[in-house]
Structure formats: structure tokens, C-alpha cells
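Summary: Need help interpreting a holo structure output

Steps to reproduce:
1. Submit the protein chain below together with the SMILES for zinc ion.
2. Request a joint structure prediction with the ligand placed.
3. Inspect the C-alpha cell block that comes back.

Expected: a single structure record containing both the chain and the bound molecule.
Actual: see attached output.

Input attached:
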Amino acid sequence: MTNYDLIIRNGHIVTSESVAKGDIAIKDGKIAEVSINEGIGAKGANEINAEGLHVFPGLIDSHVHFNEPGRTEWEGVETGSKSLAAGGVTNYFDMPLNSTPPTINKENLELKRKLSEEKSVVNPNYWGGLVPENIDNLKELYDNGVIGFKAFMSPSGIEDFHHADDETLYKGMKEIASIGSLLAVHAESTVICEQLAMKKLQEGKTSARDFVESRPIISEIEAVRRIISYAEATGCKLHIVHASSRKVVQVVEEAKRRGVDVTVETCGHYLSLTVKDLEEKGGLAKCAPPLRDEDELEDLWVAVANGEIDVISSDHSPAPASMKTITDNYFEGWGGISGAQSTFNIMLTEGYAKRNLPLEKIVVLMATNPAKIFGLSNKGDIAVGYDADFAIVNLNESFRLEKEDLFYRHQHSPYVGMTFKGKVKTTIVNGEIVYENGYFTKNI
Ligand SMILES: [Zn+2]
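--- attached output ---
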């Protein structure tokens, strides 16, 4: 009889295709056996009784900014990865910017990798940047393991990460296509946003609504259409990050129907917060593209339910509270939301509990699809041979998120005060329990 390292017994096992009661056995960090209804006869060195709980594959957050090295006063790998673990996430993809130096060449990637491997309690992966200065570095970044490249079509807000002009996008996409990788883009039109912002400021209009109107949905649509045309011309695989509206998602849908290799992400905040929250919570809820109105939020849930969206991420983009304070000018203050710890809670509460989104769909959006799109083999689902990454959840437990619950470097988030249904009890990474009932069991 096989001896296993760990057995999770009697849980409701949630995969991309089904929910069924059973046992999971783990050996050497991998799933060695999955038994539905029958039970596993062998013993484990360690056993978890998951009776009444749901066992999800560890979630993948494909879009976070942990800012290490160089800007750890905003966030860091240790605090960022602990927040993820507390939210059921076992893998993350760190964006190339907000860390200094940005991840735009091999040396900078190695520096980030060394720090991340030392400090992370979950599995790290890395995005490389595409900026006007580094087309010659894309191949070395890919050869050294980046999961894809990220470019900004409008200013990033970070001085050492320049946005990609059209020539850079076109040349960069040709190169990325030739090396077999993909490009993710922040798609907003510089021309539209800058002109509208200038007009608002000249008129002294600086409210939350003015800020939102200066970055309209049409600005996203224009940029997405343009970048899709480059994808068609170059054959480069494309991923649109943080679409704020179903109208943007539908542009991607049309392109998919034409055979363009393009996928689209939205984030927890566009599915749970609106312009009203920006007005009430101020800078904590400021991001770009900005939050939209209630009807857009509901329409985005329709897109989620219809399978028009491929990936849900956090776009966790933290900053110290002092940079998030807005008194009366919403054009000032850092745009970026602290949300990594709460994305799964949002999907369980706003999706599963309130809108009947099946649990399997949450797995597809937050685990299976990101693993497939970004080429992580053996991740994103529960099956024999897959990596033993899990989030064990009590779907019946409700809790009000308090500031003190947050593991971020800066304990603020627009979700503080919200009540969530579904609490992560245990997070397991590569067969090892890293988080249990509010505490971390892994020493870094
Ligand atoms: Zn981002």
C-alpha cells in the first residue's frame, strides 16, 4: 500500500468540470490519487479532514505588481505573496513594472527571481516588459523563463517604464511572434485620455466623475481595435488586460471569431465596485481604466457567465496610503487598487452566491485558463499528476473584511468593510500547507 505525504479527505472537490465529494492523495508535491466517492484506503503522513468544505485547485493571479526590488515601500514579495496565500492563490505572475529596475532585460529578471524565490510563500512567475528600448532583449527574457510580455499603450505612471509607441508595438509584436511568446497590453488611447484630461483640468473639473469621463470606454475600444490589427498583421498572440466593460470584451469576441489568437482579462474591482465607490472611498478605488457605472458592472457579469472573458485577475497595484489620499482632485493620487487577497472572495460572493455563477467556472477563470494561456503545465486543475496546489474553502462562512485582516504592506483596500461569503481555510502549495485559519505555517 502506498504511503502518501498528505491526504485531503471528504471534501467537495471542485475542478474545471465538476464538483464531487472525494479524497485527494499527495506525494512529492504532486497529486498522486483522486478518489470520488470510494475513499482512499492508504494512510497519509498528514491528513486533513475537509468534511463540509470545498477543495479548489490553487488559484493563479496572472496580474500583480509586487514592486520588489526597488519599490518595496509600496509592497514586497513577502507581504504580497502572503496576501495571495490568504486569498487561496498559489501562483502569481509579477508585472515588469513598479519594481525598479523594471523587468526589461535578463539581469533585471534574475534579480527579481532571486528575491522572489527567497521571499515568496507561493509560486512566482514573471512578466517581461516591452518598452521602446528593449526589443533586442525580448528573446533573452523569454529564454530565461518569462511567461509573456507586457506593454502599455498609454503612459504607465512609472518613469522607468516607458509606454510603447505604435512602432515599438509593431516591431515588438513581430519579434514576440517569432520567439513564440505572447503580448499583454494595457489598452487605453493616449490621445483620447490626454486630450480629455487636459480639457477637464482647464475647466477646473476634477471630481471622481470627471476623472472617469476623461478615460471613457471608447478609449479602451480604440486601443483594443488598434492592437488587434497589429496582432493580425504580425501573428503575435495577444492578451488584453483589465477590460472594464463588456463593450471592450465584445471587440475581442469579434476578433476571436475571425480567428485572431487573443484573450481578455477583467479584474475583481470591475465586477464589484462602481463610480459610486470611487466617489465614496476616494483614492482607494482609483484605477485605470477607471471603475464604471452599475449597468456596465452587470453587463460584465453577463460576459463572465457567457464565457466571453478568459481570465480574472486582481491587478493588485498597491501604494502607501499617503499616495491614495484624494481631497478634491481625482486627477491626483496613485491609480491602482489593493485587491490580491480578495479576488477569489469577490468571485465566490458576487459570482457564485449572488449570481449563481457555477464554481467550475470560477476554477476555469482563475486557474485552468491562466495555466493554459500562459503555458503552465500541470497547474490550474485537480487531476493525477498535477501540482498539489489547493485552496480549501468553507462556502457557508461569511465574514466582514477588516483592515487588520489584510496582509499587504499597507493595510488598506476598497474592500474593507465588505461582507464576503466563502472563507479560505487552508492554502496548500506544492503539497505543503502554507496558510491555515489566519496563520502562515511556512517560514521564509
Ligand atoms: Zn497592472
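--- end attachment ---

Reviewer comment: The pocket of zinc ion is lined by residues 63, 65, 95, 315, 317 (CB under 6 Å). The radius of gyration is 21 Å.
Status: needs-info
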